[in-house]
Amino acid sequence: MTSYLQRPRWIFVLLILVGLGFIALANRVFNEYILSIITFVGISMILALSLNITNGFTGLFSLGHPAFMAIGGYVTAILTFPLNRKAMLLPDLYPWLAQIRIHFLPAMVIGGILAALTAFVIGVPVLRLRGHYLAVATMGFLIIVQVLITNWDSVTRGPLGLNGLPALTNLWWVYFWVIATFYVSWKIKFSSYGRSMFAIRENEMAAQCSGINLFRTRVAALAIGAFFAGVAGGLWAHLITAITPHSFSLIMAFHIVVMVVVGGMGSISGACVAAVLCSTITEFFRPLEERFEVYGIGEISMALILILILIYRPSGIFGSREPAFLIKEKLPGDYK
C-alpha cells in the first residue's frame, strides 16, 4: 500500500488568507447584486463538495441532496425566526418550538445534524440498492420530503413557505463553511477511511475482501454529505430570506450532480472549480432570460457542458486528482 500524500501546509494557509482578503475587498468594492452572486457561488461550492463525498468518493449516485437542503433550511429558518413573526405566520406551531429563537451558527449546526440523521435513517434501507435503483430511490425520497413539507402546514406553512426571514447569510458565513467543507473533504480523502471509500467505488468485491465494511462506509458518506447540504440549505434560505417546498427540486439536484461530474468524481478542487463555472454561467444568462422572456437558457447551457464533458473527458476536468501545487509529492497508483 502506498503511503499517504503529503501536502505543504503553508499553501493552504496562504489560500485561506487570500480568500479572507478577497472577501474584505469584495465587501468594500462590489454592489449588493455582485455580492449575492459571489455568495451563491460559495453555497454551490459547499453543495458540490458535500455531494462529492457521497457520489465522488464512494461512487454512489444520489439525487436526494436538495431534500437534505430542505431539512436544514427549514430547521434553521424556524430556529432563527423572530418570535413575533413566528407567532403571526405559524400560530399552530408546537408551543415549545414557538418560544425558541437561537443564534444563526447553532441553528445551522442543528439543521445539518438533523439532515445527517435523516440520511442515516433513509440510508439503512436505500443504500442496499445499486446504480439506477439507488438514483430512483433517492429521487423518491426527495419527492417525499417535498410532499411532507407542503402538507405540514403547522410547521412549514405549507406551499406558501416561510418569508421575511432575517438576512443573516453573508460572505463571511459562506466562506467559513466553504473552508470547513473543504477541510473535512480533504481530511477524508487523504486518510485510510477515504481510501476505503475509493476502494468501494473502484471495486466493491475487492474492497469487501480487504475487510472494508461496505454498508457502514456508504451510510457514513451519505450522512456526512447530508450534514453540509443541510448547512447549505440554511445559508441559502437566509440569503434569499424565503424558503418554499418548490425551491428544492430535481432541477436543483441536476445542477449539483453536474458540478460533481464536470469537476471530476472524487476531485475536491474539481468540485470547487465546477461550482464556480456552473453558477457563473447560470447567473450570466439570467438577465438575458428576463429581458427576452426566454427561460431555461442557463439549464440548457449546463446540459450541453455536461454532454461535452461526458463525450470528450468522461472523467471530468480533474478526474479524481488534485492540482500539483496542492500536493507535495505525487505517488504512482494513488488516484486516477
UniProtKB/TrEMBL annotation:
InterPro entries assigned to the protein according to its UniProt record, in alphabetical order: ABC_transp_permease, LivM-like
GO molecular function: branched-chain amino acid transmembrane transporter activity
GO CC terms in record: plasma membrane
Chief place of localization: membrane
Membrane topology: Multi-pass membrane protein
Keyword annotations from UniProtKB, A to Z: Cell membrane, Membrane, Transmembrane, Transmembrane helix
UniProt keyword Coiled coil, yes or no: no
Subcellular locations according to the entry: Cell membrane
Pfam families assigned to the protein according to its UniProt record, in alphabetical order: BPD_transp_2 (PF02653)
Residues that span the membrane, as ranges: 9-27, 33-51, 63-83, 103-126, 133-152, 172-188, 219-240, 252-280, 292-312
Name this polypeptide is given: Inner-membrane translocator
Organism, scientific name: Vecturithrix granuli
